[in-house]
Amino acid sequence: MEDQTPQEQASPEVQARIRASFERQGLMRHLGARIAHIAPGRVHIMLPRRPEVTQQHGYFHAGATSAIADSAGGYAGFTLFPENASVLTVEYKINLLAPAVGDHIEAVGTVLKSGRTLTVCQLEVFGVQGGQRTLVATGQQTLICLNGRPDE
User: How many structural domains are present in the chain?
Assistant: First the structure.
């Protein structure tokens, strides 16, 4: 489901809700991650390469790769949730397919099935060097919609 040039945008209200929630995430701020795109059911998060997010061989650390994948999926699901709801990850699994190298990595979360309570997302992480994108991780995630509990 790779889409290198996402066109569709979420509404301004949904974008503002997602960005406000993302700004409250200490881990994403600590890692230096940023949201690159928000569409209904799809969110892209980018993480620039810096020594603090690499492991001993110089590749992006699996923990950093997994963390941005989890957040991308969570926010993809959150784009479809009611305004007075919040999101939590119930579980996720990630397969590391190749060493994560590049100028940055980009996680793409895509909703596969949005339900009233549970939502399932596909997770993909790409290593990006120049214009070259390489799939380095893939996974799946289940989210829970906490309706009536605003994300504040």
Answer: 1
- 96 within a domain of the structure (yes/no): yes
CATH code (residue 129): 3.10.129.10
Residue by residue, pLDDT tens for the chain (152 residues) are 444 445 689 999 999 999 999 999 999 999 999 999 999 999 999 999 999 999 999 999 999 999 999 999 999 999 999 999 999 999 999 999 999 999 999 999 999 999 999 999 999 999 999 989 999 999 999 999 999 998 87
Whole-angstrom distance, CA of residue 110 vs CA of residue 42: 5
Contact in structure between 140 and 118 (CB atoms under 8 Å): no
Match 């620039």 to its residue by tokens.
Answer: 48
**SS (HEC) of 72-134:** HHHHHHHCCCCCCEEEEEEEEEEEECCCCCCCEEEEEEEEEEECCCEEEEEEEEEEEECCEEE
C-alpha–C-alpha distance, residues 19 and 142, integer Å: 21
